[in-house]
Amino acid sequence: NAGVTQTPKFQVLKTGQSMTLQCAQDMNHNSMYWYRQDPGMGLRLIYYSASEGTTDKGEVPNGYNVSRLNKREFSLRLESAAPSQTSVYFCASSGWTGGLETQYFGPGTRLLVL
Amino acid sequence: AQSVTQLGSHVSVSEGALVLLRCNYSSSVPPYLFWYVQYPNQGLQLLLKYTSAATLVKGINGFEAEFKKSETSFHLTKPSAHMSDAAEYFCAVSSVGGSQGNLIFGKGTKLSVKP
């Protein structure tokens, strides 16, 4: 049981390049999330998917697109990367434990946009 | 709208001393509250969560937090700090119904432990 996995771990892009961050979970969770983490800002929600086939915007969706490919996988795409998107990106999934829906996080993807 | 404020972006304690990390929340409905820990270069790990079953919540690694409605607080404590507790800690509040679709995080408090 690997939990939440993310690829790649590190990536360097030039401004204007595109890339897709991959996330997969093996806990049979319905809900999945993408966050970005910036120093002094905590985690901010980019997009989330409450179930397969649905996606919703979070706090900071501009410049990103997502795809809920199936129940296991939720990808985040940067169509034209900008330096402001330099960040650490975390994927999470959530399931019910102890009477409360609880989020579980992946190890993160560190992205540098030059 | 819900929000979380963590007082102190950096806290430093000596090994064996009390750890107190402060979290205040704002919510118009009964909140569901969480503490997460992030070790360097890792993802977030759940420490504990408040579900209204009990105001004093015990988590992993000897941490606990007390929900105080009158103070809108959910401070994290540990009686005796260990070097391995050095990490960043995040308080978070969820939206109505306990769903974490809109989990709101504080900005984090980095804990340093001195030998």
Which chains have the largest interface?
A-B, 27 and 25 residues
Report mean pLDDT of chain B, rounded to a whole number.
Answer: 89
Oligomer: heterodimer
Could you tell me how far the N terminus lies from the C terminus of chain A, measured between alpha carbons in angstroms?
A: 36 Å
Radius of gyration of chain B: 13 Å
Which strand-content bin applies to the residues of chain B?
over 45%
Shape of chain B: globular
Q: Report the biggest beta sheet of chain A as strand number plus sense, adding barrel if it closes.
A: 7 strands, mixed
How much beta of chain A, percentage-wise?
over 45%
Number of strands of chain B: 11
Chain-averaged pLDDT of chain A: 92
- Roughly how many Å is the radius of gyration of chain A? 14 Å
Structural overview:
The complex is a heterodimer of chains A (114) and B (115). With 114 residues, chain A is mainly β. Helices cover 0% and strands 56% of the residues of chain A. Chain A has strands at 4-7, 10-13, 19-25, 31-38, 42-49, 56-57, 65-68, 74-78, 87-97, 100-105, 109-113. In chain A, strands 2, 4, 5, 6, 9, 10 and 11 form a seven-stranded mixed β-sheet that branches. Chain A has a four-stranded antiparallel β-sheet with strand order 1-3-8-7, with no helix packed on it. Chain B has 115 residues and is mainly beta. In chain B, 0% of the residues lie in helices and 54% in strands. Chain B has no helices and eleven strands. In chain B, strands 2, 4, 5, 9, 10 and 11 form a six-stranded mixed β-sheet that branches. In chain B, β6 (56-58) and β7 (64-68) form a beta hairpin. The radius of gyration of chain B is 13 Å and the shape is globular. The model of chain B has no long low-confidence stretch (mean pLDDT 89). Classes of the chains: A mainly beta (114), B mainly beta (115). Chain A binds chain B through residues 4, 31, 33, 40-45, 48, 50, 56, 58, 90, 92, 94, 98-108, and chain B through 9, 32, 34, 36, 41-46, 49, 51, 53, 90, 94, 98-103, 105-108.
